[in-house]
Design brief:
Number of strands: 14
CATH topology: Deoxyribonuclease I, Chain A
Structural class: alpha+beta
Strand content: 25-35%
Mean pLDDT: 98
CATH superfamily: Endonuclease/exonuclease/phosphatase
């Protein structure tokens, strides 16, 4: 079973690339982020034509998350996170797919830092951790998949110096991510590639893709019941190099 997280950076602009990926790679579950689409304009017909059912949580021009399932429709469990009622960002969607709990996560970027956007990012990590703890308490197979906008380790970026002032790599961001993982989640990509050097994102600027100047911010965290079934974790890197591609590559786990 292949579960993918994929920040599409605008689902309408990237729809040909998304359908292409679904058709060629045939993943079983796909968590999408940064739809930049309202609920009304989500291209559900195209996704269904590719053989996938979908649940989505849209927002016009910004954010937005979705969960796709091959040959079925995910059952929604929760949209949004508690703890901040005034937060209207579409960044969290949790579904059940044949007994597997899957959450699609688009964590705030947090730049510029310091400032209110960075403070919001840190609060959001804490809110995610609270929900993650509740999921673990259910003792169900679960995967928290998404664009976390956190570079966890120095070897998760092409250049520590280039990123040192970015919100993605601040000590507070990293500490929040580590606290989340320490609840009992397994960072799948890290487990399979312990020496780092695996990128999931390459900026459009300064020839980052051509120079392989990327970093790892797309993560799949596995609950103990799923971690025991982990076969492989990796990045479908070639899809980043295609015409009008997202700046993220699909990142995946295979589980028994």
């Amino acid at each position: 079973m292949k579960i993918v997280t994929y920040n599409v950076n605008g689902i309408k602009a990237r729809l040909p690339r998304l359908v292409e990926y679904l058709t060629e790679a045939q993943p079983d579950v796909v968590c999408l982020q940064e739809l930049k689409s309202s609920d009304d304009t989500f291209p559900v017909a195209d996704i269904e034509a590719a053989g996938y059912g979908a649940v989505w949580h849209g927002q016009k021009s910004w954010n937005g998350v979705a969960v796709l399932a091959k040959g079925g429709v995910p059952v929604e469990r929760q949209r949004g996170l508690g703890g901040e009622p005034e937060d209207e960002h579409s960044r969290y969607l949790e579904c059940d797919i044949d007994g597997l709990v899957v959450a699609s996560i688009y964590l705030p970027n947090g730049n510029p830092q310091p400032g209110p956007k960075f403070d919001y990012k840190l609060r959001w990590i804490d809110r995610l951790a609270a929900r993650a703890q509740e999921i673990l308490a259910e003792e169900v197979p679960a995967i928290l998949a998404g664009d976390y906008n956190v570079i966890p380790n120095d070897d998760d970026t092409y250049s520590v110096r280039a990123m040192q002032n970015d919100a993605l790599m601040q000590p507070e961001s990293r500490e929040g991510y580590r606290r989340l993982v320490a609840q009992g989640w397994t960072d799948a990509l890290r487990t399979r590639h312990p020496k780092g050097g695996v990128w999931t994102f390459w900026d459009y600027q300064a020839g980052a893709w051509q120079r392989d100047a990327g970093f790892r911010i797309d993560h799949l965290l596995l609950s103990p019941a799923v971690a025991d079934r982990l076969i492989e974790a990796g990045v479908d890197k070639e899809y980043r190099g295609r015409e009008k591609a997202s700046d993220h590559a699909p990142t995946y786990v295979r589980i028994r």
